[in-house]
Design a protein that fits this description.
Blueprint (H helix, E strand, L loop, with lengths): L4 H4 L7 E3 L25 E5 L13 E5 L6 E4 L14 E9 L8 E7 L1 E7 L10 E5 L8 E5 L8 E6 L2 E10 L1 E5 L7 E8 L8 E8 L5 E7 L9 E7 L3 E5 L8 E5 L11 E4 L10 E2 L13 E5 L8 E6 L11 E6 L6 E8 L16 E8 L8 E6 L7 E5 L1 E2 L2 E2 L5 E4 L15
Antiparallel strand pairs: 1-2, 2-3, 3-4, 5-6, 6-7, 7-8, 9-10, 10-11, 11-12, 13-14, 14-15, 15-16, 17-18, 18-19, 19-20, 21-22, 22-23, 23-24, 25-26, 26-27, 27-30, 28-29
The structure holds calcium ion (CA) (4 copies).
Keywords: Glycoprotein, Repeat, Signal
Pfam families: FG-GAP (PF01839), FG-GAP_3 (PF13517)
InterPro entries: FG-GAP, Int_alpha_beta-p, Integrin_alpha_N
C-alpha cells in the first residue's frame, strides 16, 4: 500500500473522475454516450488531474480512455489537445461527460480543467477520440466544475449543463458551427452533484442537483429542474442529507428513473448510507434509506453506479465501500445490489474485496478498493460490466474490469489497468469528495 501523497500534503482536491454513462436516459443523438468509436461497445474515460505530480510540468492532468472490446488505451494531455492559454496552475480532467454533441454517430467527450475557463469538447471518430475539438467559454473564476448531459428541451439534441463555483451554464447546441448558450436556472447551493435522467417519465430529460455541502448541519436539498419543450423548469425541492455520489436508473422497473445517492460523508450517522429517491410524475419521492444491506464501513456509498447487470430490466446498483472495516485489512469492498419491483434489495447481492477469489492482490489499509465504481457495458453484450478503482494500490493505482457472465459480475477474465498504463504515472488518485 501507499499513502496517497496528496492527502499527506493536506490537499482535499479530487484528481480522479470518471465519465458516467446515464443508463436510463434515452440516447439524445445517434451514438450512445461513451462510445467514442461508434462500435457499439462502451468506452471508459478516467482522469487524473495531478499526473504527472511534478508541479513544474506545464501541462498537468491526464484523461485516458479504455476502449471497449480489445481495451486499447488512449491518453489525452493538455499538449495533445493543443489548449491555448493552458498554464502551470491548471490541471486537465476536473470533470468528464459524454454525448454525441454533433450527432455524427460517434460519442464525444466533454472535459473541464481546473483553472481553465473553457469546456473542452473532443469529438469521436471511427478511430476513437480525434484531434477535432471545440472550446466552450465559461468565464468564471474558481474550480469545482461539474458536467452533465441530457436532452433537457426535448429537441433530440444533447445539451450540456456546466457548473463552476456558484454559476451555471447550459449549452443547447454544440458542434454545429455555433455553440448556443441559454440561460439556465440558477445554482441553489454549493458543490452540486448533478445527475440527468427522465425522472418524471414524460420522455424529456430532467436535471437534478444534489449537494455535497451546505451551510447548516447535515441537510441539503435535492433540486429537480423538470425538462420541457421550453427548457428546464422551476426548481422542485426535496430534502436530503449531503451526498458524496449520485447515479440514476430505474431500480423498481416502473418506467421512471430513480435517483440513488451515496451519502457517506457528513451524514448524520458515522456509517455510510445509500438512499433512493424514486421517480414520480411530479418529481422525486422523499429519499428512502436502504436497509438490510451487508455490513457497511464508514465510506459505504463513496461511489455509486446504476445499470442493469442481470438483464431483468430492473436497474442494479454497485456501491463502493473503500474503507470497509469488516475485514481485518480494511482494504475496501464493492457491493452489487439487485433492483426489483420493490426497489433495491440485498437478496442476491455480490460482494467483492481483494480477498475475493480471482481478484489480484490483497487488501491493505488505504488501498481504497471501490473508491470509484462504474457499471458500464464494455463488452457490448447489453449487460453491465463492473469497473473498480483502487487509487491507493501500490505503486501507482489500479483499475479493474470485472466482466458480466450470464447476468453476474465475475472475476473470470478480469482485466487489470495499472495507473502507469493509463498514463497516470506517479500520481495520487482520489474520488470526487
Ligand atoms: Ca466503443
Ligand atoms: Ca460526435
Ligand atoms: Ca422507477
Ligand atoms: Ca437487474
Amino acid at each position: 500500500m501507499r499513502l496517497p501523497a496528496l492527502l499527506v500534503a493536506g490537499l482535499t482536491v479530487a484528481p480522479l473522475v470518471i465519465a458516467v454513462p446515464a443508463p436510463a436516459v434515452t440516447a439524445p443523438g445517434p451514438a450512445k454516450a461513451n462510445d467514442f468509436n461508434g462500435d457499439g461497445e462502451h468506452d471508459f474515460a478516467v482522469a487524473s488531474r495531478f499526473s504527472p505530480r511534478n508541479s513544474d510540468d506545464k501541462a498537468r492532468g491526464r484523461v485516458s480512455v479504455i476502449y471497449g472490446g480489445r481495451h486499447r488505451v488512449q491518453t489525452l494531455t493538455p499538449q495533445s489537445l493543443r489548449l491555448p492559454g493552458f498554464t502551470v496552475d491548471m490541471s486537465l480532467g476536473e470533470a468528464l461527460t459524454s454525448a454525441d454533441f454533433d450527432r455524427d454517430g460517434f460519442a464525444d467527450l466533454a472535459i473541464t480543467a481546473f483553472g481553465y475557463r473553457k469546456v473542452i469538447i473532443v469529438y469521436g471518430s471511427r478511430k476513437g477520440l480525434s484531434s477535432r475539438r471545440a472550446l466552450l467559454p465559461v468565464d468564471s473564476r474558481g474550480g469545482n466544475t461539474t458536467l452533465v448531459t441530457g436532452d433537457f428541451d426535448g429537441d433530440r439534441r444533447p445539451d450540456l449543463s456546466v457548473t463552476l463555483s456558484s454559476r451555471h451554464w447550459l449549452f443547447t447546441e454544440i458542434g454545429r458551427g455555433s455553440n448556443v448558450r441559454s440561460t439556465p436556472p440558477s445554482l441553489l447551493g454549493y458543490h452540486p452533484r448533478p445527475v440527468a435522467a427522465d425522472f418524471t417519465g414524460d420522455g424529456i430529460t430532467d436535471l437534478v442537483h444534489a449537494f455535497a455541502w451546505h451551510e447548516k448541519g447535515t441537510t441539503a436539498k435535492l433540486i429537480l429542474f423538470k425538462g420541457s419543450k421550453n427548457g428546464l423548469g422551476r426548481p422542485v425541492e426535496t430534502d436530503l442529507v449531503k451526498v458524496r455520489s449520485v447515479a440514476a436508473g430505474d431500480v423498481n422497473g416502473d418506467g421512471r428513473t430513480d435517483l440513488v445517492a451515496g451519502t457517506a460523508l457528513s451524514s448524520e450517522k458515522k456509517d455510510g448510507r445509500v438512499r433512493v429517491a424514486y421517480g414520480t410524475e411530479e418529481g422525486l419521492s422523499k429519499p428512502v434509506l436502504l436497509s438490510g444491506l451487508p455490513k457497511q464501513g464508514r465510506d459505504f456509498g463513496a461511489s455509486v453506479s446504476v445499470r442493469d447487470v442481470n438483464g431483468d430490466r430492473y436497474a442494479d446498483v454497485a456501491v463502493g465501500d473503500p474503507r470497509e472495516e469488516t475485514s481485518k485489512n480494511r482494504g475496501g469492498a464493492v457491493v452489487v445490489l439487485r433492483g426489483s419491483r420493490k426497489g433495491i434489495t440485498a437478496k442476491g447481492a455480490q460482494i467483492f474485496t481483494q480477498e475475493t477469489k480471482g481478484v489480484p492482490g490483497g487488501g491493505e489499509p488505504h488501498d481504497a478498493f471501490g473508491q470509484i465504481v462504474r457499471l458500464t457495458d464494455l463488452t457490448g453484450d447489453g449487460r453491465a460490466d463492473l469497473v473498480i478503482a483502487s487509487s491507493g494500490e501500490a505503486p501507482d493505482g489500479r483499475l479493474l474490469l470485472l466482466k458480466n457472465h450470464k447476468g453476474k459480475i465475475t472475476t473470470k477474465g478480469l482485466k487489470i489497468f495499472s495507473g502507469k498504463r493509463l498514463g497516470f504515472v506517479d500520481s495520487s488518485w482520489e474520488a470526487l469528495p
